[in-house]
Specification:
19% helix, 22 strands, Elongation Factor Tu (Ef-tu), domain 3, six-stranded mixed beta sheet, Rossmann fold, alpha+beta
């Protein structure tokens, strides 16, 4: 899955929120994204001037903020296979990475790509139409991907005279919908992206609304997980080998802490071998460390001379996962190549890539009804379904619903090297949630 800027800010005063936008065609998503960028002063002067000229040429009396993003959307429609428009902006309180995903049903794969690393999904609906089929699809995809926070932007409230009853009806319908998907953190906001009501500044046209503006909510939503509450997961990316025989005990293992905390003296297990040892030292960019936590990049040295290679996983002895050659997962197909029983693929999990065979397809998720049903035929482009794989070598994988980064995997074409599907490992849960 796409990962963007693991460390987007070097300032300790700036938290980072990754969020993805989703909405049906003509819900005003481009305008809302443009409004956020404009009102947070995140647009360069020459870019804004160009948009103003283009708006005038089109006969608009005001600046058409949708033009800030429609160019990238046109590029996607010209045949870019998996593309999400990423926007970066910041306020004094927080930095943001916004993944602008397309709204068409045939771009379900793009929604999956954009939301795969998001902590919040911003779902737009048109106040005149309310919750529609695409809204249900986007909510289901976000829930399946483990997005913890949903924000419902009820847009174009100016076209329904900022009627409170209209807003409440849409809010309640959406809240009930996502509750069936296992999501309980939902904030609904009435707004007009075109006029800027309740986007950055509070609107006098909705005195009955006492909740946050969209930006206030984006600045306040909880970010990240407390590493101390998660078990250690450290995929080895590179083995730092000693330069001489006299320094064989100085072999180090470089990588990024994906989950949890590692401290000098911790008891750990190396997977898939299952060998146990202790952490002798931790080296960071600026020298030795007493501890490191996600998402820091460090080098570990171990007390014992155990066999560790690129792709291995160093994990906490308590709360370690298991290594297995049988992998079951929910996948979203990203390629024109269908995936079915008997196919040979590569499984890319963290820093490890192994050969695998598809043992079978068992379920397919209907994004309209939000129900899964038995399915044994090949999964095709944009399908979301469950399959089983037999791996040539064991990997140490977590349940995606518990640990997203070490529960995610990719299926790769074993001949061309192209990405076929994004997967979420299932250990003890159902496709419905």
């Amino acid at each position: 899955m796409t990962a963007i800027m693991e460390n987007a800010s070097t300032s300790t005063t700036h938290e980072l929120l990754r969020f993805a936008t989703a909405g049906s065609v003509d819900d005003g998503k481009s305008t809302l994204v443009g409004r956020l960028l404009h009102d947070t002063r995140s647009i360069l002067a020459d870019t804004l001037a160009a948009v103003e000229r283009a708006s005038t040429a089109k006969g608009h009396e005001t600046v058409d903020l949708a033009l800030l993003t429609d160019g990238l959307r046109a590029e996607r429609e010209q045949g870019i296979t998996i593309d999400v428009a990423y926007r970066y902006f910041s306020t004094p309180r927080r930095s943001f990475i916004l993944a602008d995903t397309p709204g068409h049903v045939e771009y379900t794969r793009n929604m999956v790509t954009g939301a795969s690393t998001a902590e919040l999904a911003l779902v737009l609906v048109d106040a005149r139409h309310g919750v529609v089929e695409q809204t249900r699809r986007h909510a289901a995809a976000a829930a399946l991907l483990g997005v913890r926070h949903l924000a419902l932007a009820v847009n174009k409230m100016d076209l329904v005279d900022f009627d409170e009853t209209v807003f409440i009806s849409i809010r309640d319908t959406f809240t009930e919908l996502v509750a069936t998907l296992g999501v309980d953190d939902v904030v609904a906001i009435p707004l007009s992206a075109l006029a800027g009501d309740n986007v950055v500044d509070r609107s006098p046209r909705s005195p009955w609304y006492v909740g946050p503006t969209l930006l206030e909510h984006l600045e306040a939503v909880p970010v990240g997980e407390d590493p101390a509450l998660e078990p250690l997961r450290f995929p080895v990316q590179y083995v730092i080998r000693p330069q001489t025989d006299q320094h064989h005990d100085h072999r180090g293992y470089a990588g990024r802490v994906q989950h949890g905390v590692v401290r000098v003296g911790d008891h750990v297990v190396v997977l898939p071998s299952g060998r146990t040892t202790t952490v002798e030292s931790i080296d960071g960019l600026d020298g030795p460390l007493a501890e490191a936590f996600a998402p820091q990049s460090v080098s570990l040295r171990l007390s014992d001379d155990v066999d560790v290679s690129r792709g291995d996983l160093i994990a906490a002895l308590d709360g370690a996962t298991i290594a297995t050659q049988d992998l079951e997962g929910d996948v979203c197909v990203l390629s024109d190549r269908a995936i079915g029983t008997g196919d040979h693929v590569l499984v890319r999990h963290g820093t490890r890539t192994v050969r695998a065979r598809v043992v079978g397809v068992s379920l397919r998720l209907d994004l309209t009804s939000l129900e899964s049903s038995p399915h044994t035929e090949p999964l095709r482009l944009n399908d979301i379904g469950r399959l089983s794989l037999r791996l040539a070598e064991p990997i140490a994988v977590d349940d995606y619903s518990h640990l997203r980064r070490t529960g995610a995997f990719l299926l790769v074409d074993d001949q061309e090297g192209s990405t076929l599907a994004a997967g979420m490992a299932v250990v003890a849960r159902c496709l419905e949630g």
